[in-house]
Protein 1
Amino acid sequence: MASSSSSLPTSIRSLLSQTPIQPQSSFPAGRKLGSLKIPWKKDPALDAAIERDKPYSLCSRVVRSVLLEPGRCISLKYLENRRSRLRLPVGVKTFLNRHPNLLEVYRDRVKPNGPMVPFLRPSKCLLLFLEAESEIRLRNEGFVMGKLVKLLMMARDRALPVEKVLNVKRLFGFPDDLVTDLVERNRDLVQVEKGHIRLVKWDDCYAKSAVELKAEEESELTQIAIRPNFNVKLPKGFSLKKEMKEWVRDWLELPYFSPYKDSSNLNTASIQMEKRNIAVLHEFLSLTIQKRAPVASIGKFCNEFRLSNAFTNAFTRHPGIFYLSLKGGIETAMLREAYSEDGVLLERDPLMEIMERFKEMMDEGFKEYLEAVKRKKEELQNEMALVAKKNAEMEMKEEI
């Protein structure tokens, strides 16, 4: 493969051209990772992408809380007691009024001889959605299984703790019955052993990162050998100091280190390890549905992916590859190249269809709520007008 900067993506060549290229042997030249300080810059468009999904996240949390209960039902009082855990800013009754097509209220007893109290269960609309979700998951089962295999192939010992995988299942679109169903039906690839999901068979078909696949795609289109490298996409108004430009230039010139390649022989403090770690973080985010993840969720896998405890610095050290959002008081790492300048995802994960359908259902319910509010407002106005008319008539009679 070509190793010159001419084989790099256009955005990277543009960055490199801003400063003359020095011999690669000058790379270490006293520039240590810890001494590289890059100011964090807010990206309103990417922050807005997170903000747009807040209603969806809230509704899905409430719905999941009901669906995970035995019999898929829960008393309204019990759900009200979970408001803090669900981060529900309004009362359950207010939530139900705003989203009338998600859950339906019925009355039942908590205890056999107890009083009848309000309970919640999935609405007919939600049940139809759940059927559609099952069909979508079934259709993309191989795709989802591929994500799990890739995560295992990047991990130390080719295994991940079951608990940790289940904690991030929604990021990747793993089903609730991942371990009991999907893994069990694919025992030729993965198996559960001693609390870990372990890779049974290595398959080179899965051992290609998003960066490597992109390079292959560009090579086929241009008929020119493109070596794998990161797509550097600095935000508008962001500029690097001369020292940092030189460091980024030299760093990008280093060979790409696949996240699926054995890194046990690398010095944890070496610049090659930095290249490998960025590849792991890039691939992790590439496998998520929305190309983003809470930093705390990534941090759960520091040991398995051989990441240092200071791995979060990588997100600000490489602002052209990642964006670290602080929206909502939560640090969220985002893959910058996956979003347009307007903060819209450029490539659609097949499992996004589930989210899109849920949002459509939410919008329909909220529209119904707004129409109900409008009707009540009109009824109130009509009543007030009628009262005013009667009062006026009474005053006229009194005057006569």
Protein 2
Amino acid sequence: MAEPLSVAITAALDALGKTSSNGVPLLAGIDPSGATGFHLLVISTLVTPHTSPHPGALSTRTDRLILLSQPRSIDESYCSTSSDVLVFAMSVSEYVVQRPSGIHELLIHIGKIDTTGHAARTSTTTFIARSVVTGYLSHIYHTATADMKKTVHVFARAQPVYLFPSFVDNSSKRVLSDTALLTWWAKTLSVLPSSSRCYYVPNETARSVPSALRTATKEGWTWGLGHPQKTRAEDVLPRFPDDPIGKTMREHCGPNSTVEEIMEVVGLTGECSGRASGLFSVVLEPSAAVTDDGSDADAMPAADSSRAAYDAVERALMGGDYGSLEKARAATDKVLAALQEAKESGGRVYRVPVPLKVPPGPVEAIARPSGLVPMDGNVPEVIKDGASPIPSLGRGLIKRKAVAVAAPPSNAIQNLVKRKKTSESKATVP
């Protein structure tokens, strides 16, 4: 049986926490008055038929919201919901696509990730974000059907707020420049077992991108969108909601446009003009076969209930105020309450502890209590040991009719505004 998501994230936290640029472990010397563990919370929509990212193919889609909260103290009230503070959030969409040829493919689109800046040790924020992303993708790698092609897609763009509001009032939250954000993603995706890795920065060339990004993509990365430039774009490039590639193909290019033409035009769209942004695509190596023992084959809730529950949790998350630690605690309580309501209405909700193994350092850390953390009536259920918060992928593909996509006017490209000079802006730390 494949490892649970919590185990994959724990392994990533442990591995990354033992390394640093100056030889001192990232987690060495954590103050024992702060928490040394997290709670992983996951809510997922039902697998439902969806317009395929590839026209003419059949597709299903599952959305997931992956959250990490951290108690700020280890004492008798360790499990009190009032002490939990959200420190990280990530929204992802998973598409299982069946091509007309019969080939199945898993497309993973990472929509947004964000941090609050309220981790017990703010210097570990970037490492926490990288651990969750790589842990999630490692879990996908080991649980998806072995013979299914798995591709990760990321559109990275600097903006002050992704999922947690009140960034301006939060002095604890770090910011990254455009270059630092793109470099962070390149380094994060480089640790995955992959057969190919591609990146493209609109309005730049492989030689004109900043040196930090060139260094991060020097080994194993290819410039471009991952396909021969003369290939018809509609045959090979997926289209995701709120993605500049999809917008370019829908609004500015005809059905016979090539990958090369898409690369030339995408930089003129509003999502990519005026600031640096990056498109990353990673094809994961084929994984070993996974033994499915049916442990995650529990009854599914009604599709509309699951979607409504997911949306309610997302509204609670993005409607909170995280400007200070006290406000973040109150906002976290509202998210936990929304998760509890989602669970009661049939939503797929999981909560499980994720231990943080602190290496020896100047300060001796207090060991985290063993076993699962008991819940009270205000918190979603804890999953059993060995159960996976994310079901095995690639099953239950639901057929639907292909959706025809009308070709945009031929003069759409000429109507685009002139390219603006790329400027350096700030982004919240992943």
